[in-house]
Amino acid sequence: MGNSALKAHLETAQKTGVFQLTGKGLTEFPEDLQKLTSNLRTIDLSNNKIELLPPLIGKFSFLKSLILNNNKLTALPEELCKLKKLETLHLNGNHLRQLPAAFGQLAALKTLSLSGNQLRTVPTQLSGLRHLDVVDLSKNQIQNVPDTVGELQAIELNLNQNQISQISVQISHCPRLKVLRLEENCLELSMLPQSILSDSQISLLAVEGNLFEIKKLRELDGYDKYMERFTATKKKFA
After folding, report:
1. Burial letters for 25-62: b for 16+ Cβ neighbours within 10 Å, e otherwise?
2. Closest among 113, 143, 147 to 127, alpha carbons compared
């Protein structure tokens, strides 16, 4: 892509606050974007070949949405955590194994999408994020869900298509968790905490494709309580 094309994109972005350049084979984050640190609200560089996010990402202090799906990122810089206004972060289809230590400082974050990476656990940093609504960790290599999940503020947690065989009972303490997706994992029925059914806020539990028959779920203590929540929620959205 020539400089003139990039210049045109930059000029548009200066007016709109949106810089979108997808599927152009970019191997690095365009440094020229630095000129727009105070203008940009949205950056979308999906479907490129970017391997590194430079530290200068921390300068985009008004950024609300950062979308980097389907690139080649293996790590994220700590500077990313300075984006105090960031509400949406989409990093699906990269090679991330962990999140920066200071990730919990992204205080405004509402939607986090990390589907199709190489995470092995639910990142503990997520527990500090007070405004999280949706967390997508599907298609990773997560094997267990740790105790820290009990502090997660999300409304929806997607853990489909991992290798989960253990879940902390603390998940039933999540104050806002309504939707829990655990399809296509390695769960035995005995490893599913019954308190998810009997004593949680969860009103949609998706567990198809594990190591038990769905009808067995109905035999567990607390299933009727879960169904009350499920039905009440369905009525609300009907």
Report:
1. ebeebbeebeebeebbbbbbbbbbebeebbeebbbbee
2. 147
- Give phi and psi for 28, each to the nearest 5: -145, 160
The number of distinct structural domains making up the chain is: 1
Using CA atoms, how far residue 68 sits from 3, 20, 109, 221, 223, in Å, is 21, 10, 16, 43, 40
The per-residue pLDDT for range 124-182, each reduced to its tens digit, is 999 989 999 999 999 999 999 999 999 999 999 999 999 999 999 999 999 999 999 99
Indicate whether this model's pTM tops 0.90: yes
Cross-strand partners of 144: 121, 166
Any idea what the CATH number is for the domain that residue 88 is in?
A: 3.80.10.10
| Residue 203, token pair as written in the block | 């009103």
